[in-house]
From TrEMBL:
Residues 50-84 form a coiled coil. The keyword Coiled coil applies. This is Uncharacterized protein. The lineage of its organism: Eukaryota, Metazoa, Chordata, Craniata, Vertebrata. Residues 1-50 are annotated as: Disordered. Residues 23-32 have a biased composition (Gly residues). It comes from the Eukaryota. Keywords: Coiled coil.
Length: 89
């Protein structure tokens, strides 16, 4: 299972719109495919299984939080509607 820190990092990367591995600009403005760029040695165009799992778990966690938040909002709205209907009578 992922730690809270790993999930938080993945959520922040997703919110920031971070580019997938192997895409974007390398260190010192070089492209990731540029052999003169040190980042070229560190980037893998195909994420490992553990990286894919980490991303999937983070996305699943975020979706679950969103569902719970929407459920709470709907529940609160129904409570307000019920209160209004009781006070109108």
């Amino acid at each position: 299972m992922l730690s809270q820190v790993e999930v938080k990092v993945a959520e922040e990367e997703e919110e920031e719109g971070s580019l997938p591995v192997g895409v974007g600009v390398g260190v010192n403005g070089g492209s990731p495919g540029d052999p003169s760029s040190p980042s070229h040695l560190q980037q893998d165009p195909y994420p490992s299984f553990s990286e894919q799992l980490r991303i999937a778990m983070a996305q699943s966690s975020k979706e679950q939080e969103d569902l719970e938040r929407r459920w709470r909002e709907e529940e609160e709205e129904l409570q307000r509607i019920l209160q209004l209907s009781l006070t109108d009578k």
